[in-house]
Automatic annotation (TrEMBL):
UniProt keyword Ligase, yes or no: yes
Bilayer topology: Peripheral membrane protein
The entry's keywords: ATP-binding, Ligase, Magnesium, Membrane, Nucleotide-binding
Domain AMP-dependent synthetase/ligase positions: 37-268
Single annotated GO MF: ATP binding
Domain of life: Bacteria
Enzyme class: ligase
Protein name: Long-chain-fatty-acid--CoA ligase
Cofactors: Mg(2+)
PANTHER family, per the entry: LONG-CHAIN-FATTY-ACID--COA LIGASE
Amino acid sequence: MFGGLKGAVADFKLRHIDKAVPPYRLPGSLRLKALLARGKSEPWQRPDPAPGDTAVLQYTGGTTGIVKAAMLSQRNVLAAMRMSQAWLTPALEAAPKVAAPVGIMPLPLHHVYTLYTTAMLLAKGGCSVQVPNPRDLGSLIAAMKAQPFDLMTGLNTLYAGLMAHPDIGSVDWSSARTFIAGGTSTHRHTAEAWHKLTGHWIAEGWGMSETCGAGTCNPFPVPGFNASIGLPLPSAIIEIRDEDGTALPTDMPGEIWIKSESVMKGYWNKPEEDPFDDRGFMATGDIATMDAQGFVHIVDRKKDMILVSGFNVYPNEIEDVLSDLPGVLEAAAIGIPSDRTGEAVRVAVVRTDPDLTEQQVRDHCAQHLTNYKRPAEVIFVDELPKTPVGKILRRKLRDA
């Protein structure tokens, strides 16, 4: 955040030159400086919040539709922080004690992932190094080199992008204890390459704005790549249910339902949108399985599922296959209308090798995917549309 002339210049560049922010008006808005001036004349009163009072309006990412504000209470935020601290403690205790843990946060503070991880670090007397623009990989690498750090958060696309950057080899990994990933599935190729580079496996986890970011994570020490989002964090209860709300046996795909002290009160000004059942479990819209050891494996977002000739096709599976094809930086799979099969698969591919052909993509998919999961359409793009934190905007690819 900037003030004065520097802030005005940065704001003008973002809005009018980079076009990074769509045009907007906020009727009745008040600048922070004016707000502080107005409050100067008022007597200060110590706040006395109750555990159930709303502490944060956390907006959802909007990757599948219109954004909503999750009402997170004081209790929700504290619970998420404590749950994450309990998970992180073994990682911090596995190395010589440091005065204050340092975390590299290459995602904006408005994102729930960074919000609760930062709160967790501060509660331990630590430091959260903010790198607001995750696409500026040069600035991120500079932050990683500026001081020893203990942990870093990121997404699959961010870790893959870092490994492709020419300066990544100059980073000192000796102080690092864990790297956390969430937001999107971590691909095997990314995890294995990151381990080869740093000596650490990525600890993949799962959470939502509605859970204050806390849900599951792989336990420390991370044993390797297991294609799992880990175990429920302490005090979280997760069930995998079918369309009728019946709990499913192990290894059967269904929707994740979660109950936890970190789960939101509800959606702000949207009482009609009630994702809770009468036992206090919340429907998440994520499809997953749970194995006999309790590890949860994400299949995909319910809304992203593609229905081909009556068969369920999950984009994550196709994208995992494409990530192993040499010459592919990243890829996204979506469903498009088809007169023959109802829906068909379209894949958008970002190449690192300009000579990679459509036929090579099709041949690779034919080797690793059953017929109905193979792409009917292959397009090459310079970049995939993403949210500011790196999540792929599939709906924009559908409209392309």
